[in-house]
């Protein structure tokens, strides 16, 4: 390895280790100084007063609403119930029923001093639901129904909501430029530009910055594609899909700042470490997480269309996320699309065959992925063989894939059900969508509730001292385009793209890096601090 590469890698490793408080700029508190509340009037007028969005979905909003409830003596039992429910969520299946019963005894019995009367009215239905299915959580529904009433109104008049507006001021009104970030090494190359490791100066958070060179985008008419990817990403919030944190521009590029995935992609893990392929536990774990990611996308009516090992990335802990949503489309009202889109060798027969198709294309993709993870090579291709695209398409349309002795009966059955050439017969497309796939015997031992809550330990953890990507000098340089001039129409498109911070990701960044905890202080004995004093 060349010296430049080693220097670039060790700088990145150091930044990663110090990620969080050590990586913050010495001016971080100044960068995140709250505006005086009087500067938040416009925000207060325009913010949508929706309980679910403000108090459940937005991470900082949720925390502040909870702090408000804790400050109210009459709400103590609700808070205790909320805490108990948090614990309930993290219980294993075996413990869950018993714990649910203890919740009922503590909070739903009228003789208990902690009785929560509004929920108590629903005691019978809570008990019944727990009997039927201890994985379901009915308590939260009733609790939210209550809290979204008078409590939510009082919250909006409290200093906790004012503080929420101050946090929001950063999200809505602070412009994002390249100066917000420190840049580390090049991670990879995409179709329109490079992807770099970067770190937010104010918080120390590490991200990957995907740059789209403006001249490249224009020359190759990539505006629609770039905007599509950005808009789809900002509407998603799944632990199995990369999150968008910021969208901003520099003089030469449009930038998407994404969840940093330091563990490399699955292509690297399948083909570049040891003998090709992965062991069965890893295949099962990655397949299950990808399956959850696809279900999330499909629930949002998004068809992904580019499933392949290269696009599945690992984080530091060994969890995966789906990335590169450039080919994804939103299908409104269950409509179908047409178009030979995807990567040669991974496209479903109905995609190749110019047919109209829907989510079936992604389940085919999952079949290819599981096949490749198991066999160490994609279906219908011999090791080291690179058939012409037309030949690859012919095989996909007409030939049957083969299963060697690396395939257990269950994996073979799963792959062949997903690689069914008829989309109507394919697993995942027979009426109940992704749950059909989750119910396959291969996943029998997977607890999808725990997996979706991030509570399952990955079978493999990437080495924190390694950089899982090509050496800097081996990543081809990105050529510049000449003879393209940027004009007003381009600026209009850029202004749609550069929307700055994405609220949920930004709020999670503040919480994960500890900035929220350190900055969210009030006056002595719960009084207002000067920045909140009208
Ligand atoms: P394109 O859509 O142009 O193909 P990608 O999104 O696939 O661009 O990114 C190009 C490369 O950059 C990837 O192959 C990968 O090596 C790297 N990369 C992309 N996103 C991330 C990320 N979130 N974390 C780490 N590396 C990434
Ligand atoms: Mg790509
Ligand atoms: Mg792409």
From TrEMBL:
<feature type="active site" description="Proton acceptor">
    <location>
        <position position="306"/>
    </location>
</feature>
<dbReference type="InterPro" id="IPR011009">
    <property type="entry name" value="Kinase-like_dom_sf"/>
</dbReference>
<dbReference type="InterPro" id="IPR000961">
    <property type="entry name" value="AGC-kinase_C"/>
</dbReference>
<dbReference type="InterPro" id="IPR016137">
    <property type="entry name" value="RGS"/>
</dbReference>
<dbReference type="InterPro" id="IPR008271">
    <property type="entry name" value="Ser/Thr_kinase_AS"/>
</dbReference>
<dbReference type="InterPro" id="IPR000239">
    <property type="entry name" value="GPCR_kinase"/>
</dbReference>
<keyword id="KW-0597">Phosphoprotein</keyword>
<dbReference type="GO" id="GO:0007165">
    <property type="term" value="P:signal transduction"/>
</dbReference>
<dbReference type="GO" id="GO:0008016">
    <property type="term" value="P:regulation of heart contraction"/>
</dbReference>
<dbReference type="InterPro" id="IPR017441">
    <property type="entry name" value="Protein_kinase_ATP_BS"/>
</dbReference>
<dbReference type="GO" id="GO:0007507">
    <property type="term" value="P:heart development"/>
</dbReference>
<protein>
    <recommendedName>
        <fullName>G protein-coupled receptor kinase</fullName>
        <ecNumber>2.7.11.-</ecNumber>
    </recommendedName>
</protein>
<feature type="binding site">
    <location>
        <position position="210"/>
    </location>
    <ligand>
        <name>ATP</name>
    </ligand>
</feature>
<dbReference type="GO" id="GO:0050254">
    <property type="term" value="F:rhodopsin kinase activity"/>
</dbReference>
<feature type="domain" description="Protein kinase">
    <location>
        <begin position="181"/>
        <end position="443"/>
    </location>
</feature>
<dbReference type="Pfam" id="PF00615">
    <property type="entry name" value="RGS"/>
</dbReference>
<keyword id="KW-0547">Nucleotide-binding</keyword>
<dbReference type="GO" id="GO:0005737">
    <property type="term" value="C:cytoplasm"/>
</dbReference>
<keyword id="KW-0418">Kinase</keyword>
<feature type="domain" description="AGC-kinase C-terminal">
    <location>
        <begin position="444"/>
        <end position="509"/>
    </location>
</feature>
<comment type="similarity">
    <text>Belongs to the protein kinase superfamily. AGC Ser/Thr protein kinase family. GPRK subfamily.</text>
</comment>
<dbReference type="InterPro" id="IPR000719">
    <property type="entry name" value="Prot_kinase_dom"/>
</dbReference>
<dbReference type="InterPro" id="IPR036305">
    <property type="entry name" value="RGS_sf"/>
</dbReference>
<keyword id="KW-0723">Serine/threonine-protein kinase</keyword>
<keyword id="KW-0067">ATP-binding</keyword>
<dbReference type="InterPro" id="IPR044926">
    <property type="entry name" value="RGS_subdomain_2"/>
</dbReference>
<dbReference type="Pfam" id="PF00069">
    <property type="entry name" value="Pkinase"/>
</dbReference>
<dbReference type="GO" id="GO:0030177">
    <property type="term" value="P:positive regulation of Wnt signaling pathway"/>
</dbReference>
<keyword id="KW-0808">Transferase</keyword>
<feature type="domain" description="RGS">
    <location>
        <begin position="56"/>
        <end position="165"/>
    </location>
</feature>
<dbReference type="GO" id="GO:0005524">
    <property type="term" value="F:ATP binding"/>
</dbReference>
